[in-house]
Design brief:
Blueprint lengths: L1 E2 L11 H12 L6 H7 L3 E6 L8 E5 L4 H10 L2 E5 L4 H13 L4 E5 L16 E8 L3 E5 L7 E5 H9 L10 E5 L7 H17 L7 H11 L3 H4 L3 H13 L9 H14 L3 H30 L2 H26 L2
Helix pairs in contact: 2-10, 6-12, 7-12, 9-11, 10-11, 11-12
Pfam family, one: DUF4872
InterPro entries: BtrH_N, DUF4872
Protein name: BtrH N-terminal domain-containing protein
């Protein structure tokens, strides 16, 4: 058996921030989950639909692993990333650092992990690994998934080898903090402005505040868009409120990040952004409840109300990001 000593196996709400937290705490940097999410410029929005999809997808964060790269760059950390098509080499990339006393981050497909009760393919899932024996690998996942967990090495190999949307080629990574890492407070404003710029100036209408406005027009049609509304709509609501989002499609995390920032930086723009994202988080939870109710009842009026709130959310989040862009 190989086991990294003194690993803080605290699970958080979101998978990527959970893994980041494990690796950073082992390097002596203990940051809150909202701070990790905010320093990674993690907030975003995407509405995606196509004929090949069974139901539209709503996303509230940047692409998998972008957050990790952003945090490493912001704090001046050494991020070593390994990818390979070889399962043998992929195992060596993980076992080597663990044998040397360093936890490793993994991007994989959660479908094959033994402890996942909901079997859905998602290739953008991220965990931290801190040990292994002949049969099992010892991981840290989100608090809802159990925090410190284990899965068979066979299942882990399948999860890492799976191909599909958002999947990576057996991606593993380690983080090393320099002797004098950048102070998180010094990186807050650049991270917020990066996030705001991307949100306010999306390249296509499916993204950012434009994407929320587009969603406002599409959601009222979801009963007819779905082949199985009683399953599809409640599932969409669960993905907004649970599924590692921290609630309100990641808006709770960003609200709490801005609350931390307000305590560190005296800025009216920051206070405005925090106030508006507090409102946005509440309204996203209302949208999720209305979508779930529409699926259960078949009542289109719930979706009409959700569309009206989304229209307001587009304005609220646009105004919030405009204020934050002036930091």
């Amino acid at each position: 058996m190989a086991m990294v000593k003194d690993v803080d196996v605290r699970g958080m709400q979101h998978c990527e921030t959970t893994a980041l937290g494990v690796l950073l705490r082992h390097e002596g940097l203990d940051l809150s989950e909202p701070m990790l999410f905010g320093l990674g410029s993690g907030l975003s929005f995407i509405y995606w639909d196509s004929k090949a999809m069974g139901f539209p997808f709503l996303g509230g964060r940047v692409k998998p692993f972008v957050l990790t790269r952003n945090v490493a760059a912001a704090l001046g950390l050494e991020l070593r990333v390994a990818e390979t098509a070889s399962p043998r080499k992929a195992w060596q990339n993980v076992a080597g650092p663990i044998d040397a006393g360093r936890p490793v981050g993994l991007q994989l497909d959660s479908y094959h992990l033994d402890y996942f009760s909901t079997k859905v393919h998602f290739g953008g899932h991220v965990v931290a690994m801190y040990g292994y024996d002949e049969q099992d690998a010892y991981l840290v996942d989100t608090a809802p998934q159990g925090g410190a967990v284990s899965t068979s090495r066979t299942g882990l190999a399948r999860a890492r080898a799976e191909r599909g949307p958002m999947a990576a080629r057996h991606r593993s990574f380690t983080i090393t903090a320099p002797s004098g890492p950048a102070a998180p407070q010094d990186r807050i404003i650049p991270a917020i402005r990066t996030c705001a710029d991307a949100f306010l100036n999306p390249p296509i209408a499916n993204l950012g505040h434009r994407g929320i406005e587009k969603t406002a027009g599409q959601v009222p049609k979801w009963l007819s868009r779905s082949g199985n509304p009683r399953e599809d709509l409640p599932r969409a609501a669960v993905l907004m409120e649970q599924a590692g989002t921290g609630g309100a499609l990641f808006r709770n995390l960003y609200r709490d990040f801005l609350a931390e920032c307000v305590r560190l930086i005296d800025s009216s723009h920051l206070r405005t952004g925090h106030r508006l994202y507090t409102e946005a988080a509440t309204r996203w939870t209302q949208v999720a409840a209305l979508v779930a109710a529409a699926g259960e009842s078949g009542d289109t009026e719930n979706l009409v109300q959700a569309g009206a709130i989304l229209h307001e959310l587009s304005r609220i989040e646009r105004d919030a990001m405009r204020a934050l862009s002036m930091l």
